[in-house]
Structures are given as structure tokens and as C-alpha cells.
Amino acid sequence: MRTISIYDGSVELQQLRYVLAVAETRNFTRAAENCFVVQSALSHQIKSLEQELGFQLFARTSRRVELTSAGAAFLPSARAALDAADRAVADSAAAVGQIRGTLSVGVIPTVTAVDIPAALGKFHRAHPAVPIRLRGGNSDAFINSITNGALDVAVLGLATSTPPEKVATEVLARERLVAVVSAKHRLASRRRLRLRDLADDTFVDFPEGSPGRTQSDLAFAAAGITRAVAFEAMGTELILDLVRQDLASTLLPPGLVTPSAELATIPLLDGPTRTQYLAWSSFNPTPAAAAFISLLKTDQRRSASSAGVGSDHS
């Protein structure tokens, strides 16, 4: 059985998996169920590990299970050891043409450059043995997760003037945001606007400091305009619902707004621009990540080629 050395003894990888399961569930019974093992076997393995280490990992009562301070200190190294073991298996499989391991993908709520469900479906059909995990969130958090190894790939959306750092990237799309207003808005019939035309409006936007809002804040600041953001929301659905009620205006990528009788989208001559990036580890992407990146790049090239062919005949 594969082992790793700790102090003067040896710890089995399965024991580490049991420790992580108990730490996550705070319950020996649920941990055993998650590991597909009887509770007595799991408890015995953890007790043996504690004896080997010379300290308790968990404080136990009949009703509660909690990590001890020593257990909390042990947990990151245990997780790293398991990740390294899984990576070794994945790398070995990749060397003989097999993709193993897990693919973890982060997606911003305003992605328009990639059809993520379609891409994940295509990847799954090509590599059915690879589990896929999908996370929603913001670009800054995704960059941190990629750099610390908690995430393989992410689609980011950032102000064009602030490209991502510490990760490898490829530009997926650049776009200028449009003004989105209620059909009842005083400017709804205009063909184009400038930011100063919206200076007196009340706005709905993503939370202050988030990458989804930064490009708009920078654009208004550059224009010397102080805007009133009375509503903050995490998702575009709520943002657009507030606009439909004529409670606020907003700026969004045009691909996120479905034409309707309740909304008007108006191009902005001096509106903010954002860039969507595909991001991954610049140090050592996993085989699954490399395969997914290759798939997306191939699809992007085909899409660009098709668009080029179409424009030649227009």
C-alpha cells in the first residue's frame, strides 16, 4: 500500500481520507458513509493514526466531534498529501494518454464569451472518467483559487485597464458595456448615449469593489461623474428585474440582455470596456485542466474562423 512518511512512522493515504471526511462532516457515522466503509473500521484507522502521531486529531463526545488544535494544524498537510497523490496518479495516466483527476472550473455570472454548459458537456463526453466541479463567484476570488491550487480553470471578466496577474490567460472577448434602462425611461428611445446623459440616474450594480462593477466605477470616475448606486445585487437576473420596474438603470455587457418590450439597451460612446479571459495556473496546470483549455481554445478558433467566413460573404 502506498504510504507517506511522517515523523518515524508511516501514514496510509486512506487514513488521511478518513481524517478529511470526519473533519468535513464533524460526524464519524456520516464520514464512514461518505467513504463507503463501516464506522468501526474508520474509527479504528483514525485511532491508529492518532497513536502513530502521538496526539489526538479529534475531540470526541457522544454528541460532538471537533478538531483539536493539533488536528487543525495537521489538516492542511493531510489535504496537500492527498492532492499530491491524486496529482501523481493523474500525471502518470496523462503520460500514457489517459486523462484522470478532477476538473474544477470557476465561472463569473456575466460570462458571454463561452457556452460553459456546452463546453463541459463536450469535455465530459471526451473524458467521462473525470469528475467535473463548477463554481460561481467573482474574478478576484477565482484568481486566488487558481494560484493556491484550489481551482483549475476560470472564466474572468475584468476592466480592460486591469488585466489579471499571477495566472496564465488567454483573451476570450473584449466588449463595451451598454446602458440598460426601463422602456419607460426618459432616454429609452435614444440611439446612443454618453455617460453624462446618465449622471442623474439611480443605478443598480454589482457590490462595491467587485470586478463586475469596477469597470463602470472607473469609467464614471474618468468622466468626472459621481453616480448614485442605490441597489446592489450579486446576479444579473435581479439587476434586470429592478431595471424593468424602472427603479434603476445599469450598465451590462450586451450579450446578457435579452431584447424585450420592458427593457431598452443603448450603446454608450464612452462606456466602460471589459475583457473576458480564460485563466489557469501559470505554474503547473493539471492534465484535466490542460485538456479543457485545449478544448476551449480549439472551439474559439473554430468560432473565429466561422465568423470570418461569414463576414467575407456579407
From TrEMBL:
<dbReference type="GO" id="GO:0003677">
    <property type="term" value="F:DNA binding"/>
</dbReference>
<keyword id="KW-0804">Transcription</keyword>
<dbReference type="Pfam" id="PF00126">
    <property type="entry name" value="HTH_1"/>
</dbReference>
<dbReference type="InterPro" id="IPR000847">
    <property type="entry name" value="LysR_HTH_N"/>
</dbReference>
<protein>
    <submittedName>
        <fullName>LysR family transcriptional regulator</fullName>
    </submittedName>
</protein>
<feature type="domain" description="HTH lysR-type">
    <location>
        <begin position="11"/>
        <end position="68"/>
    </location>
</feature>
<keyword id="KW-0238">DNA-binding</keyword>
<dbReference type="Pfam" id="PF03466">
    <property type="entry name" value="LysR_substrate"/>
</dbReference>
<dbReference type="GO" id="GO:0032993">
    <property type="term" value="C:protein-DNA complex"/>
</dbReference>
<comment type="similarity">
    <text>Belongs to the LysR transcriptional regulatory family.</text>
</comment>
<keyword id="KW-0805">Transcription regulation</keyword>
<dbReference type="GO" id="GO:0003700">
    <property type="term" value="F:DNA-binding transcription factor activity"/>
</dbReference>
<dbReference type="InterPro" id="IPR036390">
    <property type="entry name" value="WH_DNA-bd_sf"/>
</dbReference>
<dbReference type="InterPro" id="IPR005119">
    <property type="entry name" value="LysR_subst-bd"/>
</dbReference>
<dbReference type="InterPro" id="IPR036388">
    <property type="entry name" value="WH-like_DNA-bd_sf"/>
</dbReference>
